[in-house]
Structure formats: structure tokens, C-alpha cells
Predict the 3D structure of the following.
Amino acid sequence: MRDLFDKIYKDKGPLGKWAEQAEGYFVFPKLEGEISNRMHFQGKEVITWSVNDYLGLANRPEVRQTDAEAAAKYGSAYPMGARMMSGHTDLHEQLQKELAAFVNKEAAYLLNFGYQGILSTIDALVSKDDVIVYDVDAHACIIDGVRLHLGQRFTYKHNDLESIEKNLMRAERVAEKTGGGILLISEGVFGMRGEQGRLKEIVALKKKYNFRFLVDDAHGFGTLGKTGAGAGEEQGVQDEIDVYFATFAKSMASTGAFIAADQEIINYLKYNLRSQMFAKSLQMQLVEGALKRLDMIRTMPELREKLWQNVNALQNGLKQRGFDIGTTQSCVTPVYLKGSIPEAMALVKDLRENYGIFCSIVVYPVIPKGLILLRLIPTATHTQEDIDETLDAFSGIRSRLEDGTYKRLSEAVMQAVGQ
């Protein structure tokens, strides 16, 4: 028998083995200053493309005033206890009603956190006899929810309709034997690639297959659709989504999340969501803050218009300069380059230190080996000057990547980790 910790000492994991070189800079970086288009990193001002404050609400004066007044009124503890026991209020109910109306559903229920909430929703919706069918590129929160499932689960190729149908047929064969049902899960917007889930085509499959549809629309809520109600509204199929999920951590620039569905479904979930039944209620200052933010999303379409003005300027500029941004259909702007992890580290250090650009870096195992993904998140607070500087910077780093500069710089890193 071995020591449980042997694996920890011997194998740090694909990312953990780079901790000594990466921590504090490439991972766990410290951005300082007000959440905005320009912040500070290690004492230097940088144009920030790594904050999901899509509509620029985080530091709007009226938002900060609402947050401050609510904190002064209620403190950070109220209400105490889980909502089923002692943490339920009129304002929680009001926010749920307004959220449900905004996303065109009968009812909604508040969740304390997005990650925890979607995981628990999946767990509550299925039993061991049911089958889950989900996109292979689904976010970790969905994957972890699926891992709790004691029954069968099948992944389909990303946004691939043929693969979706193939796996629905497999799921039907299993469900016929077990007497269970089928839950199909997609994202409204996939957070790495920026592609929208093929919601319209998926709901059309309901005519051929018996399944229920859960959509995680963390990146679509507030950014897509005529009113900002998300990817379902954008694609004209919101009514056909059985359970709609969104988080406050993106467009709302806050903490919390919600699910929305028919009243009977919400009634069931609120009595069976373990993450909410046995956890403290969402604090009142967050609830009041969310009400203010939702009102601004509804009544200030100019915020979304400015966001998309910046999105289009950035994405068109990158394409005009020959960059590969994949097939994004959202604000999420991926830039794909070819290179190793050490080259990626040298490239990003150059980008931050010499060009003053801060964006997220994604490498293996999140994406295939040999690829570098630089993910940019445009917001309503960015300026044309920010975009122009960033486009020039990206042209510069691409040249240095192609002429081997970063490969040479990375050799020292490779030697340091014994590669």
C-alpha cells in the first residue's frame, strides 16, 4: 500500500509542473486598481483584456453607490441561514421575478455561485436511470456536474450535429432499458472559443428525440439578443430551452447566478438543489446590487451597443491583420498561435512587459499541444486607442514568434525545468 500523497510528490500535473516559473505571473497574477480597461500589473499600467466586466458595470458610480448603501444598510451577513430555514426575503423573490421576466421564463431561482449552481442543477435534474448528453468542450463546472451522475453519460463532438444525433440515439437505447430520461447540455457561448452553441439546431431535434435541454449561458446573458437576454434570444429559441442558467459574474459584474424554467420545474429544483438547501442565502447587498444591474441592462441598451462597437473593431482589426480568431460568434475573442508552452511564456512576458497588454493565456491541456490561445475579452469601457495599441502589439509578438525569438528565450526555461 502506498502513501496517498505519493502522487502529489511525484506528479505535479500538466500545469503544476510549471508552478515555479509561472506562479504569480502567468498564473495567479495580481491585477490591481479599479476594474477597468486599464489596470496595474506588477507596478505597470496595462490594457486589460482579462476581466469579464462586459458592460462596464463594475465601477459605474450608480452601481457602486447601490452596493455601498446596501452594505451599510444590511452588512455582509444578512440574511443568515439557508433560504429554506431563515434566509428568505422579499428582495430575493423580487429579483427572481425580474430575472424570469427578462429571460422570458415563468420562474427563476437564485444561486449563490455559478460554478456551484450549475453543478448542483445537473445533479438535481437526473437520477441513476437517466442519461446525460453533453458537448465535449463544456466548461469544467458542467463536467463536474456530470461526474456526479451515477448513470450513463455521452459526449458529442463540439457543436457537431451529426455527433449530437448519434449520441441521442445511443442515449435513447439506454433510456429505453432503464426507464429513464435524457438531459442534453450545451453552453450558450463557449468561453474559450467564443462560439455560440447550436441551440436552434438542437431544439429542432426535439421533433425526433425525447430529451430536455439545459443551457449554460454565462457569456451570453447580457451580451447577446435584442434585449440582452442571451443566446436563446439571439437564436430565437428561448422558449424551447427547458432550463436556462446564467451567472452574475460576467455582464452583471457581481457574485451569484440563477436558473429559469417553467414554474413547476423551479419548484422542484428549489427543494432539491443541495448546494442551495444546505448553504447560506445570497447576501442582501448582492441581491440589491443585482437588481440595480439588471435594471441597467434592461434600460441602458447603449452599454451593449458600445460593447459591440468595441468587439467588432477588435475582431475585424485582428482579421484584417491576418490573425486566426477561429469562428467566434460572441464577445469572446480568441487569437490562435502556434508554439510550445515555454514559447507561450516568453511571448506573454514580452506582451506584458514591453507592450503593456494583459490578456489570458491558454495552453495544453486546455487546448491541444502546440497551440497557444490568447483570449481577449472586450468590454464597454475599452477605447479605440486601447484597440489600436493592442493590434500593433499583436503584430509585434507574432513577428517575434515566427522569427524564433521566443524559442530562443524559452530555452532557459526549458533547461530550468529539466525538459
Notes: The mean pLDDT is 93. The chain has two domains: 10-48+301-416, 62-299.
